[in-house]
Every structure is written in C-alpha cells, then in structure tokens.
Amino acid sequence: MKIIDGKQLAQNLRGEIAAGVESLKSEKGVTPGLAVILVGDNPASVSYVTAKEKACREAGMLSREIRLPAETTEAELVALVKELNEDPAIHGILVQLPVPKHISDKAVIDAIAPEKDVDGFTPVNVGRMMIGERCFLPCTPHGIIKLIEFSGMDLKGKHAVVIGRSNIVGKPVAALLSRKETNATVTLCHTGTPDIAKFTREADVVVVAAGRPNTLTGDMLKPGAVVIDVGVNRIPDATKPKGFRLVGDADFESCSKVAGAITPVPGGVGPMTITMLLWNTLESARR
C-alpha cells in the first residue's frame, strides 16, 4: 500500500510554479498578483488566508491581502471586487468563503471577472469546464486529479466513484474525471444513494468528499483501489494538545489494509488546494 504524499507533490509543483514566476518576471516584466479578500475574522478563514499569503511570497508572487470588518455590506464588497477586476497588477481574485450571512456568496462570485477567477467558481468557468473549454479549474478538484496521477494510476478506462455532490468538490471532480483527456467512467454517489458500497466495491478510484468520518471503510473497497480522502473532521482526543485530532472521511486504518494507494489526513489533498491556486494565478498572468 502506497501513501500518496500531497505535501511532496505540492512541493514539486510549487518549485515549477516559482520557476515559472521568475521566468515571467525576467522575460516580460510581469509579476503574478493575487488579491485575497477576507470579510470578518472566522479563525479557520484567517488561518487559510495567512497560508495563501505565505505561499504567494514563497513563489515570488505579489500578494494583496484585504481584510474587511464583518459588517461590510454586500454592495461594498462587490464594489471592491469590481475595482480589482480593473487593476492590471492583480491577475487573480479570491474572496474567502464563507462570507457573513448578510452577503450573498453568489453575488460576490458573479462579480469576479472570469479571467481573474482563479478559484474556478464563476458560472463562466464552471460552464467552460463542463464542455471542455480552456478555463481555470477549481483548485481542490484539480489537485485531486494531480494526486491520482501522482499515485501512478492511468485513469483511462477506469471506474471512479465520487462520494459527495457539493459544488466545490463532488460535482466538479466528477466532471474532470469524465473529461476526454482523463477518460474515466464516473459514478457520483451521495446521501440519496441507497447502497454506496455496491458502487465503491467496483471502483478503481474512490474520491470521498462527504464531510463525515467513516463514510468509507475497508470492507467497501475493491483490493488495490486508489482512495482520495478530501474530508477534514475534528474528533475529540484528550491526548492531543488541542483536545482534538483531524481525520478524513475514510477510515484510514481499515482502508489502508485494502487500498493500493491512499491519501493521508492531514497531508494529502489539503496542500494541493493552495498549490493549484498559485498554478491558476500564474496561468492568468501568462495570458
């Protein structure tokens, strides 16, 4: 059984990205710029935004972090996004979600110019992804495809099962897996699927993004399958300094005994999300 090291793959790709940034600077005098907007002080969001800023600096990119109070209005946030759309120094715009409840996620995402939508969330980029046109791919699903490739599996003709139908992971990763260049046969399972194990036992690849621990267990797997665990769940653990430990949606102990390759939590999918954000920002600057 192989542990798919997301940290190692992310490090490899970030090296390529940094080289691409340096090349763009020296050849065209262009420094890729990413603007990240954080509304409020959600601890998880603050931590994630800080990590993005650090990653940008390490890659040689311009990072513009904009922190706004929680009482910022939707109109004010949309106006800021539109200003950044017109800023030539900014090639990517990311509004950290979730935003406060009085602000519509959709209104904010729709305000981002598709050519600066490095999260791949706008309807234009989602539509382009679905019909196979050039676009910014959503970061976590794109990272998942890279991880599967890194595991050594050729997806062509393979059966992939995705557990979870969110707009952020489940649906887009199912779409990417079924594109011609990937060419997998895809089954999408969710809370309305009566017997998920019926499908996962036939799968060469299982991507589990349900948001619930132990959604996938070893007895649900085909021997040798590749498991990509997207879940990040806090489980109380008095032996840990913070009083909890992180686990995925797959039961690692039982799944690792059956799978041919599996991502750990943490250290699997997580490092790839920010890496693919940098990837998209560099691509935007190159355009």
Task: Give a short synopsis of this structure.
This protein is of the alpha/beta class. Helices cover 39% and strands 17% of the residues. Helix 2 links the parallel strand 2 and strand 3.
Characterization of this structure:
This protein has 287 residues and is α/β, with parallel strands linked by helices. 39% of the residues lie in helices and 17% in strands. The protein contains 10 helices and 11 strands. The strands form 3 sheets. The protein has a 6-stranded parallel β-sheet. A 3-stranded parallel β-sheet has the order 3-2-4, sandwiched between helices. The longest helix is centred in the N-terminal third of the chain and has 23 residues, at 6-28. It is globular. The N and C termini lie far apart (41 Å). The model has no long low-confidence stretch (mean pLDDT 96).
The low-pLDDT segments are none
The amount of helix comes to 25-40%
Largest sheet, in brief, is:
6 strands, parallel
Percentage of β-strand residues? 15-25%
- What's the arrangement of strands in the largest beta sheet? 1-11-8-7-5-6
Distance between the termini: 41 Å
Helix-strand pattern, N to C? EHEHEHEHHHEHEHEEEEHEH
Structural class: alpha/beta
Shape annotation: globular
What is the overall pLDDT average?
96
